[in-house]
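U., I forgot to send this yesterday:
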Amino acid sequence: MRHPEDYVESVLACVEAVPPGRVTTYGAIAEAVGRFGPRRVGNVMAEHGGGVPWWRVVRADGSPPPCHGGTAHEHHLAEGTPLRPSGKVDMVAAFHQPASA
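Result:
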């Protein structure tokens, strides 16, 4: 059985591997890391994700989490992340599949 801190480190490593201008989803990280689902990834990001490019993790529909006061959008614009007219990330153009941990 893996130690909980190993899980946190695996999630954060997946986030750090997402290139600028690209995004991944909570579900894709959960699948790559294994063991828990997207909600657990969200919990890890909420508790430990401040030091990684958290704005590169979005919901499956391309919307950022409702926290951070809209600053994810500013990061996406700065990095040239493909966006749809709605302001959500264009998941077809921007999706990054994380490698399995």
